[in-house]
């Protein structure tokens, strides 16, 4: 038998060089002087914004808010050219952050973590990479993202297709030219809805295969308004604070209690104002009860359906595009620019694949029932194995070799959405059962990295080695998360929030729906209470 190894190679291993990994590295290495290795599968920094290079990819929370807040000089100096920056600009921003804080030297690119195993005897993680490297660390921080493992579609035959297959979530760096081509886009989630107007402009023919129509509403993009930006930058601290104290992590403050407490005319005025302002205002800054009360939700769903019908000239296409059968906001609401107008082109068609699903991809196209739609290029905008997929892909094993996949057989269980019982010293940045994807991601990420690094600091100050949630704390958090979810309309709908986009995945709400302020207050109490619910040894 080999000798037990008692000393780590580094203090912390971090996975991912997106928003989470970059900030974690800076904080651990530069602010806490802890030795840190970062592994990143891509060839450079950027995470989501490295991979998702499809035409039209951009953020849908205003960039002045969808950005790091941790460094005052950084947030003052960086200028966004548009209200909602496009993918290339967000990537340039993250590259700038990497340069500014000299981060690349501690990131190993082109390397995937394929094993993360807890060593009970030495209280260390052993991290294996696909290049054969093995690194032992005291802590492991996953910044692997929530939407980074593409879903494998239910239909087969993709390999037999003789044309080109593109995935929105892994778009070629050299881009794609659709000029003169017959193109199929499969999927009308946020990615498909952003890409379709651009593909429609170039393609000779575009066929959109839609399973579920979406409640897409206007993004309202435009050049940055220099006066508005100057005003925000003068008060950036306060603005960030207001954002962190809002359900979604944006500094909106016009929300009214109930859509049902006002008459139809007043509701229409409110919805019009939010629709015209664009962004997430309609969703999150109109009426508080739309996610909780079906009748309130119906008022906004009717409004959006009407607006969609106004924009689509062909009534048959409009009928296909107007969503029915589920409540607005129970699937992640996409924001759009010229999406509905794209269907006013004669060259753009929509095929409903709800009633008759896609059977397979053939050598020449997409087969639905008896018909093959012949195309030159297929774009898969079919989504992700969200939240848990990126963690499962790393083969994480906790105490006694327990695989995370086994522990989460019936759905994810966590404490505060950041740590897991029997998986000590493992931090999941924006993990399942945290506000994560329903909280402005850069701020959600900063909060979680700060929680993890504060916990590490707390242990170090006290000469302790290990932090792990108790089973009771984990159970209570799971019950609370589910209770809150069950008060909303979300569980009724098949969405990736519920794990329902992946056949066979356990149905469970992946997100803490109590909102960022309540979540942050709970975390603060836990810390003030000496990490209540955690076992520290
Ligand atoms: O993925 P999705 P996405 N046959 O899962 C359809 C974030 N994001 O990449 O709804 C036919 O939402 C599927 O149909 P259905 C954002 O959080 C943000 O678009 O399952 N269709 C659906 O229409 C977002 O929510 C931005 O019935 C099939 C689509 O494919 C998340 O990423 C931009 C199918 C998948 O939609 C994921 O968005 C982009 C099949 N077999 C993404 N399988 C921003 O703006 C799946 N579909 C910041």
If you had to describe this structure to a student in words, what would you say it looks like?
Belongs to the FAD-binding monooxygenase family. It comes from Rhodococcus oxybenzonivorans. The protein has 537 residues and is α/β, with parallel strands linked by helices. Helices cover 32% and strands 16% of the residues. It has 17 helices and 20 strands. It has helices at residues 19-31, 48-51, 72-77, 87-100, 190-202, 226-234, 236-244, 264-277, 281-284, 294-311, 315-321, 339-342, 389-392, 404-407, 441-461, 471-487, 516-528; strands spanning 10-15, 36-39, 107-108, 113-119, 124-129, 134-142, 164-167, 182-186, 205-210, 217-218, 335-336, 348-352, 358-361, 365-368, 371-374, 377-380, 396-397, 426-428, 467-469, 534-536. Strands 1, 2, 3, 4, 5, 6, 17 and 18 form an eight-stranded mixed sheet that branches. Strand 13 (358-361) and strand 14 form a beta hairpin. Helix 1 (19-31) runs parallel beside helix 15 and helix 15 (441-461) packs parallel to helix 17. It is globular. The two termini are 27 Å apart. The mean pLDDT is 97. 3-acetylpyridine adenine dinucleotide is lined by residues 59-60, 147, 153-155, 168, 186-192, 194, 209, 211-212, 332, 353, 358, 381-384, 437, 496, 501.
Descriptors:
537 residues, eight-stranded mixed beta sheet, 17 helices, 16% strand, binds 3-acetylpyridine adenine dinucleotide
